[in-house]
Amino acid sequence: MMSIADRPVVEMNGLSRDAGEVFGAPLPAGAELSAWIEAFRAPGSRFREALRLAYGEDLVLVAKRSALYREVLASFKQAFGAQGNIVLLAVPSRINWEGHHVDHQGGYYNSTTHSREMVFAVRRRRDSCVRLVNAQPERFPACEFDLEHSQKESDRRHLWSDYVRGAFAAVQKRCNRETLLGADIAVASDIPVGASMSSSHALVLGGALCALSANDLMLDKREAVILVQEGEWYTGSRTGLGDQATMVFGRRGKLFCSPVIERYSISPRYVSLPKGYAYLIIDSFTEHHLQGEERIDYNARVFAYRAAFPLVLAAILEDGGGREVVASTRRLVDIAPDRFPTDVIYRALKRLPDAPDFEHARQLFDKATEVLAKAGVPLQVSNFDELVSTYFGTGPLSQRLPIKGVALYGLAECWRSRLYADLLERGDIQAAGKIVDFGHDGDRVSRADSVTGRYVSFDHPVTNELLDDLLTRLSDSNKDVRASAALECQSGEYRASIAELDVLVDICRSEGAISASLTGAGLGGVITTVIEESRVASLRENLIRHFEKAEDAEVELVRNAVLEGRLAQEVASVVRSIRDAKRSARDRHAVFTPNAQQQQALDICARELVAGSNRLVRLLPVDYYRNAVARNVSVAGAGYLPTPD
């Protein structure tokens, strides 16, 4: 962390908000609220160029982004007034195309920024208070906190403000200050919450940039990536570094490829995406939240990687693996075919348990670390309880650890993540797409029944019989058979999908997509697909038919709830009118907005028709005709806007 408190505040040398290797070098001076409003109304030549560098030549996109900035300025003015210098900054969403669930194991992240963003208006304060408002106050209420008062983990209430508080706490820790100056902050965003587009990381990164602005601090961008992880861990989520690395280092129109396991591993490589293909984001209109059981299961999968690592390494050593190579193996990503023969890896996996309880896992872990220690092989973490504390804290533990399935998935996905950019750069998009599909198959939890066509639960355990079959195929005389046993072709079993995502993936594949997969942590949200431009229209119609059929089922669900006495007949009538009005609006190419009566009926359904954490009516409230399918348009990485002309 570097302070510039004693330097005069000067104008940015460049107009690109993501220029340079350091955030805040130098910080923009900011401007009065009225000057910002005028800049977006009638931008001068310099400011217009800054917008072009961030968003490209698409005037519609620039207009949408400008509208979001105006929205955050309006929220700021309403809450805090128009006086004083205000700094504007933006953090883009990200889309991960390959390298899922392995960034924290050294796997490469292959991602792009996305044009949906979170924007911030920040004004420094003279005290240690941070006041927050959001352009969606009904969902994210205004709040404030004092930086002089620390908060115990047990006292946190999982509010949206915790992500900003975590960011300020991380900045304060890194700059070795007793207390930072606070800030008045307004936030506006069109990144969907819970859609696996990393709105939480955007909030932490934006909060950190607000803290830098309010305190005249500079921060190396690689340090910023680590800092955002620390801020996210403050909330209890054990996340990796891939999302924020993309937000920090992403470039407009390029695929960002890099390992993102630690500060010094981040080495951005930029690859152009092949022409003639559409890169699409398809919304399932489900949300994923890392809370409760979902968080426990998510952390258990990440923990399973760490528990499996010494087990696999010890098995390789006992199988005759060279001690020097084993000793230089630091992470899961290092156990790869370019360092160990694939058959050695499969034999090591055979010695892993399927899904042990914690006590059994502890015994195996301790035995493996003892074997490695005797051979002089160092481990970053050799204490099982330390790992448990890191990934579960004081919270409840998962009943079982899915070690074998997660280990094969992780080893294969780490290897796939290293191959992906090379395949794209060589123009072999078909091969690149295949390895993406193998990855989603490892996440899959459902598939269509061959007789009824209905989606049913799908288990694909990694057994010793499967591994024996792979070992047999590796030695087959037929090269195609051998190729089918390659590590990158194995799905493993990570199970981070949900049925709704599996259905959408299969629809894309049926339309000839190059690839289709969940993105991010999974458990809901969006999927990504790459498909030839000529097939986009057909795919969209197929998806719309799917959503219409599912919406019809929701209408029937409401009707049945009326028959069961759970809902009034009037609610069912209004729900039918919503469905019919949406389809009429589509035929007229119009926008449908529910009226007060229709919204009230939807609210009743949302309250009454819930199974666990799942909404049973999810498509009736949304305009899937307009919002289900979006093209990915990548924009500039995170940063401050230059002061208006």
Give a short overview.
With 645 residues, the protein is an alpha+beta fold. It is built from 21 helices and 19 strands. It has helices spanning 33-41, 45-55, 59-80, 161-175, 199-215, 221-234, 242-249, 292-318, 323-327, 342-350, 358-374, 384-392, 403-425, 429-443, 464-474, 479-484, 499-510, 536-563, 569-587, 596-608, 624-627, and strands at 2-3, 22-23, 87-98, 108-124, 129-134, 143-146, 183-189, 217-220, 255-259, 269-271, 277-283, 446-448, 455-457, 515-518, 526-532, 610-611, 614-615, 629-631, 639-640.
Number of domains: 3
The largest pleated sheet is described as: 8 strands, mixed
Shape: globular
State the total count of DSSP E strands: 19
Share of β-strand residues: 5-15%
Helix content bin = 40-55%
Number of helices in the DSSP assignment:
21
Based on the coordinates given, report the CATH architecture of the largest domain: 2-Layer Sandwich
> CATH topology of the largest domain, anyone?
Ribosomal Protein S5, domain 2
What's the overall average pLDDT, rounded? 90
Describe the protein in words.
By secondary structure, the protein is an alpha+beta fold. It folds into three domains: 2-274 and 635-640, Ribosomal Protein S5, domain 2 (2-Layer Sandwich), CATH 3.30.230.10; 292-497, no CATH class; 535-631, no CATH class. The chain is built from 21 helices and 19 strands. The strands form five sheets. Strands 3, 4, 5, 6, 7, 9, 10 and 19 form an eight-stranded mixed sheet that branches. Strands 14-15-11-18 form a four-stranded antiparallel sheet. Helix 4 packs across helix 5 and helix 13 (403-425) runs antiparallel to helix 14 (429-443). It is globular and about 70 Å long. The protein starts with a strand and ends in a 5-residue tail after the last strand. Mean pLDDT is 90; it is low at 1-13.
